[in-house]
Amino acid sequence: MVRLESISKSFAGKDGPVSALDRIDLSIAKGEIFGIIGSSGAGKSTLVRLINLLERPTGGEVFVAGERVTDARGERLRELRRSIGMVFQHFNLLSARTVARNVAYPLELTGRYGKDEITEKVARLLARVGLSEHAHKHPRELSGGQKQRVGIARALACEPQVLLCDEATSALDPQTTGAVLDLLRQINRDLGVTIVLITHEMDVIRRTCDRVAVIDRGRVVEQGPVTDVFLHPRHPATLRLVREAEPDGGSLEAISASELGSSTVRLTFTGPNAHRPILGRIARENVVDYAILAGRVGHIREAPYAQFIVSLSGRDIAGAIAGLRASGVDVELQGGPQTEQTAVTSPRVGERALHVV
Ligand SMILES: Nc1ncnc2c1ncn2[C@@H]1O[C@H](COP(=O)(O)OP(=O)(O)OP(=O)(O)O)[C@@H](O)[C@H]1O
Hints:
CATH topology of the largest domain: Rossmann fold
Largest sheet: 6 strands, mixed
Order of helices and strands: EEEHEEHEHHHEHEHEEHHHEHEEHEEE
Keywords: ATP-binding, Nucleotide-binding
Organism: Ensifer adhaerens (Sinorhizobium morelense)
Protein name: D-methionine transport system ATP-binding protein
Strand content: 25-35%
Strand order of the largest sheet: 6-7-8-3-9-10
CATH architecture of the largest domain: 3-Layer(aba) Sandwich
Number of domains: 2
CATH class of the largest domain: Alpha Beta
Bound molecules: adenosine-5'-triphosphate
């Protein structure tokens, strides 16, 4: 639905050009919820302005729905911009207009709809975001979450193919964030609209997205299904973002090399395995003990996961690891030397050998 091919963007700086984005390749499929995450200054805002065609790249090509739009101009450019709805961090509502008239605004701008048609469309949009009773209020009378619902209704008014959400929950408290993310997922399910979520919070990605790209200093440093990137972060920028999402500062990612012996493994249980008593059974069968050094349990969207760093000791450690793997547990050795039989290639990107006994 949106494809960026080797996109670069630089700005004129005092001491020469400043590179904000450097050869970004991204392909966002129709109907998916795609997350773009990075810390401050990574290039997120620049990327947003390129996707919604407010800026032109210095190099590379932008495609929307298969069409090359890098040089689109005039009416075609306005039409393309209408096909990309925007949801902003600070809502950007018009304070003098009521809720209903804020949502009506983009429809009025097109000049294509009569008054009755706009009234009917606005009523449907407000019902979708749960604000029918607030239609005649002004933004100052609404909570942050309600304001963002108005922002979402307004972004959907022109029936966009893509909804671009730029830090849409960053100004909201955790509970309201959850409700707004649920609403976005429902809209994605009901309308099939492609959603691109730009955020600096890994938790937003974990709860909402199908796939994610991590940007750092203007480059995509890691991308893939959220389950893979969240549970097996590789790039230091991704590790930092995952760590920030952990309530205790990320004990799993923060564990020091000195704590990792040659029988220390990272075990990842996903899907139904997260609820099966596999670890105890394997320990009994192979006469091994285990000490849990760090761990986390939770959900990625609806799917449960559990991940532990475990130190194994006892009779048949190799047998225990083979048994865990045969039960569908992902096992990565965290320390000790790698041998020829034990190296396997990562199924995600094939970029790193995992150490497995
Ligand atoms: N108009 C501009 N002129 C010069 N440099 C710019 C301009 N816009 C962005 N930059 C630079 O490009 C880099 C990326 O900035 P950008 O605003 O895209 O990052 P960001 O990830 O959105 O950060 P934040 O989360 O803090 O908004 C930064 O180094 C920034 O200083």
